Amino acid sequence: MAGITQGAPAAAAAGDSDPALVSRAAAGDARAFEALMRRYNRMLFRTARAILRDDAEAEDALQEAYLQAYRSLGSFRAEAKLSTWLARIVANEALMRLRKHTRRAEIVPMQSADAPEVEQVMASDTDNAPDTRAARGEMRRLLEAQIDALPEAYRTVFMLRAVEELSAEETATVLDIPPATVRTRLFRARSLLREALAQKIDLACEDAFSFAGERCDRVVASVLVRLNQPKETS
What pTM does this model have? Predict the structure, then answer.
């Protein structure tokens, strides 16, 4: 891997294709790698957070995963989508941290089996009136709490499939499980959420576990600083 260089501004590189950015980043172009981070930050943060259930821990895992990905860019062969490749690295890092800290989630019993069907767990809503925003914020907090209460295996599949809208095959690749298992876990996750919420949900996927600009900038800045640090010699 070549040393870090400052290429074209990340904003200018934002419209470039993944292969073009990967090629430039592998050659040491920091701006190209920054553009990739900004492109996939939210999805990858959600992946880490679905596993760890902690914002700060998810940020740390995401940063470490980015460093791993940067060092491995030269070996990326585009056999899978870049987003899937990155998500796999993030998921592995998050799972390693979960095992290390033994933060196994307590399974919260879900009641109300006769609860009404949830037509859409998260749906778009363009009404920006103050009372609507407040209602959506409260609903989002409720939904996030219920997602956090899901068992780990269901929670991660739900975030990747229902929120990030990865295919069953892509999710299976990220989590290293069969596609059939992905479908089964997604069905069970939706059933548990439906029982727990006991009402129809109208909330945008864009709002759940949002990756705010400040957090995005913080992760990118931290990774770029660490990439520019001198390597330790053995």
Answer: 0.66
